[in-house]
Amino acid sequence: MPVLPRSLEIQSEISAIRRDIHAHPELAYEETRTSDIVAAKLAEWGLEVTRGLGKTGVVGTLRKGNKVKSIGLRADMDCLPMDELNGFEHRSQNPGRMHACGHDGHTAMLLGAAKLLSEKRDFEGAVHFIFQPAEEGGGGARAMIEDGLFDKFPCDAVFAIHNKPGVPLGHIVTRGGPLLAAADRWDIRITGKGGHAAYPHTSADPMVAGASIVTSLQSIVSRNIDPLEATVVTVGFFKAGSAYNVIPGEAHIGGTTRTTTPENRALVRRRIQDICDGAARMYGVKVEMEHKPGYPPTVNNADRARFAIDVAAGVCGADKVNGNARQVMGAEDFSYMLEKVPGAMVWLGNGGGADAFNLHSSRYDFNDMAIPFGISFFVRTVERFLGEKAQA
Ligand SMILES: [Zn+2]
Ligand SMILES: [Zn+2]
Questions:
Q1: At 285, is the pLDDT very low, low, confident or very high (cuts 50, 70, 90)?
Q2: If you measure from the C-alpha of residue 77 to the centroid of ligand 2, how many angstroms do you get, rounded to a whole number?
Q3: How many whole angstroms from 295 Cα to the centroid of ligand 2?
Q4: I want to staple 67 with a disulfide (CB 3.0 to 4.6 A). Which of 124, 307, 326, 349 is the partner?
Q5: Residue 388: per-residue pLDDT
Q6: Helix (H) or strand (E) holding 271
Q7: Which of 364, 371, 385, 373 is nearest to 79 (CA)?
Q8: Count of C-beta atoms within a 10 Å radius of residue 198
């Protein structure tokens, strides 16, 4: 089965919504206009609408029959704090705001799926359409979960689409297991004893301890992590000292780590701490490490990913689906939902080939031609997960 005929019929209606949202981008937790549009459309199509989860988040629910089985579909609504350089009619009207990650398209496609499923209702159970705020660093998914998302709307599975520039239109790409990385930050503060450069034996030098720590951190990826599991430890700054002839009293080192499994994430954190503790003892200084967790790794459930690949093959054709995508070291807060509910994220081709403007480029735009594929993927995912007779 290719894209659903009805998804083509509503394509212009949905792309008009998409362009309207694109022209009026809103930052994290400020998506009031966008969530008003989302809530109004969902209500118009007869869905139960719940607002206020994660401040501006919206959940639309469609139920049929008495089965308790349920599924969640997620889209993100926020834009990025940047200027748009495109000149087309639907370019951003808000200076310093741009939908450069295609969340306008994600929101519109999920609305399209809600419209189609409200018309057809070819399923038994509950479908929760989750429109989250603040994906771009604000942890909107976590905010919705903390406000009781999965207590109020239990889900047996959760699925999401992110568009991918450079992947051909009508193609879907994903993988079971880690898809995106966890992105954490850390600060290391070293306190020694400053003094005269000519009398080092009377001081405790935080510079030497810090240099040793920076070098030792390089051994985490090379000596502690499985070589087949992508991991990054990068020192971003090392601040200490101000004079040629003074041993400083303090040093401050900071950096970021990227890991693709919860185990490696914990391991890297533990090893950074070990290295700091070791250096403190070795150099007679005080070393404090502060770990600042960012988004967890986005890990697709193996069964759900297989299911999504199968649905995608039905919509796009098996030759246009790659179920063995390369994982990337970016991060995505759908990861918080995947920690709670088995599910999968897929990447939907935004077209454009190798020279496509990438996500977060000031010349990027979501491709309206991808809309029928996204809608059809969501609709078929629901129909198949909530048990229809005919298979795709
Ligand atoms: Zn983004
Ligand atoms: Zn994004």
A1: very high
A2: 9
A3: 13
A4: 124
A5: 61
A6: helix 262-283
A7: 364
A8: 8
